[in-house]
Amino acid sequence: PIETPNRFVFSINRALDVMMLRPITVLYRDWVPEPAQKGVRNVLDNLGEPVTAVNEVFQGDPSRAGVTLARFVVNSTLGLAGLFDVAATFGLERTKTDAGQTIGMWAGKGVEPENGGFYLVLPLAGPSNARDATGLMMDYAVDPFQILPIAFNWNWFYYSTPRYAVNVIDYRSRTMFALDDLEKNSVDYYAALRSAYTQQRADLIRQKREKTDSRGELERRDNLALVR
Predict the structure, then answer these.
(1) Alpha helices per DSSP H over the chain
(2) Considering the entire predicted model, what is its pTM?
């Protein structure tokens, strides 16, 4: 329903990507040694562990949340602030989830995971929808690394901006080939990206639902098969 402003924001995001983000990302990918890139990714993942744990609790999986918190403690100490994923060597595997998935998981019966509300293109962030944008704000509100700077009256800009910038560069470097391929093989890049995002998020939510209501999921698939 808001395709016109979405396409406008999308065009601005693409222009910024072509002029700034992509060149920086290429330099990062080609000039920064792979072990260093992995270390950066580990630190960023470690900073997100508390938010993941909170969502795992609300998704009805406190035991998994305990593992996530254990990972955070181990990697923050033995792993030198998360630079090394020491917890994985102890058998504590990393998981990643967010409030958008939590909302989608507990959505009303009959609400398909693909139905995340109206599609939304966020400035400097990219594809989203009403559900995931709401989840993003919820994650931000419970992130201790966003709350602590405010509580101690630290300058938010000097902490959050570098974290966000490094996260964007790292994520862009890991999705560059996939996005280039999607753009190259699509007639309408905006529509193709919207479809890919919707399907990917729906798949993540469907996986969450299957763990809690496998019978309901099987019935849903049977009903869809009969309709088709």
Answers:
(1) 3-16, 22-31, 34-58, 62-77, 86-89, 99-105, 130-142, 144-151, 156-184, 189-212, 214-227
(2) 0.86
- With b for 16 or more beta-carbon neighbours within 10 A and e for fewer, the 173-195 pattern comes to beeeeebeeeeeeeeeebeebbb
Q: Hey, how many other C-beta atoms are within 10 angstroms of the C-beta on 12?
A: 13
d(CA 130, CA 222): 28
Long-range own/partner contacts, residues 209-218 (CB < 8 A, 24 or more apart): 209/105, 209/113, 211/61, 212/59, 212/60, 212/105, 216/109
- Dihedrals phi, psi of 122, to nearest 5 degrees: -90, 135
Instruction: Tell me the C-alpha distance between 37 and 35, whole Å.
Output: 5
158-199 pLDDT, tens digit each: 778 899 999 999 999 999 999 999 999 999 999 999 999 999
Dist CA 124 CA 169 (whole Å): 12
Under 8 Å between Cβ of 181 and 196: no
